[in-house]
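Researcher: Please predict.
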Amino acid sequence: MDAYDSAFWATIAAVTDAVFTWHDPNLLSGLDFEFSADEELLAARMAGYWTSFAKTGNPNGPGLESWSPFTAAAERIKVLDEPAGDLVGYHNTECRFLDQIPSLQAHPSEYTPRMMGR
């Protein structure tokens, strides 16, 4: 894939995300797109949290389920699509698997060129 294709797909991803963030299906002009009932809920949640965050620096606001700050100890994340809520230990199983794989590269200090004679 060349750079143009990469930029194109990155733009598509940002535009489709913006449709929900701004709660506006008309951002996909020309595609005759309408929110499903679940997408409507997702868009309302995303717009609510973003609006509250923009106003106050905190995503929590009136009518929104409380969003706790992320901590490494709890690993709690907020799920905005259905079913909405909190998820604890997101991808713990996958991360434990990856932690078991031996390092595929040496530490950078082991292959960083050094000046000769010093």
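Model: The chain is about 40% helix and 5% strand.
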